[in-house]
Amino acid sequence: MPFDAERLINSGRLDQRLFDVTELDRPAVRKAQKKGLKVIVGYRGATASAVREHVRATGDTQVRRALKNLDADAVVIPRNDAKALWEALTREQTGGFRTTASGISHIWLDGVRRASLD
Asked: Is residue 115 part of a domain?
C-alpha cells in the first residue's frame, strides 16, 4: 500500500482493493478493467458539484453511470490518466499523506462480483 494513501484507506475513504495486486490480477477483474480503471467516486457537501465537474473533465475520464441516490459517479479512466485522476481526487497534506479533495466522500474500486444463490 502506498504511504500517501494509508490514512485514506484507514479512514474508509479509499478502497484498499485499488492496491491489492492479487485482486487486480484476477482474470475477471483484468477483463472488466481492460479499457481502464473503473472506480466509483462519491461526492458530498457544498463543493460536490464543482469537484464532480473537475473529475469528469480529468484526462479521458468517462462517466459510465451517474449514481444519483448515492451522490456518486461510476467512471472509467484510461491507465495513462490514472495519476491525473489521483491528483483530482486527493490533496497533499503535511508529512506526505493525502486527503480527499473537498467535495469527495469516497473512492471505491468498481469491482467484479459473482452472485450466488447458495
From this structure: no
CA proximity to 82, closest of 22, 27, 43, 24: 24
Q: Which residue range(s) make up the domain with 61?
A: 3-109
| Tens digits of residue pLDDT in 24-35 | 888 888 887 888
Which class for 100: exposed (0-12), middle (13-18), buried (19 or more C-beta within 10 A)? buried
The sheet carrying 37-43 orders its strands as: 62-67, 72-77, 37-43, 104-109
Question: Residue 118 falls within a domain, yes or no?
Answer: no
Would you state the pLDDT for residue 41? 97
Say which residues have a Cβ less than 8 Å from residue 33's Cβ, sequence separation at least 6: 24
User: Which three three-digit cell numbers place residue 94?
Assistant: 503535511
**Please, are residues 51 and 104 in contact by the beta-carbon 8 Å criterion?**
yes
> pTM for the whole thing?
0.86
Residues in contact with 58: Cβ distance below 8 Å, sequence separation at least 6, in sequence order? 77, 81, 84, 85, 88
Q: Is residue 29 part of a domain?
A: yes
Pick from 9, 8, 58, 13: which is nearest to 36 by CA?
58
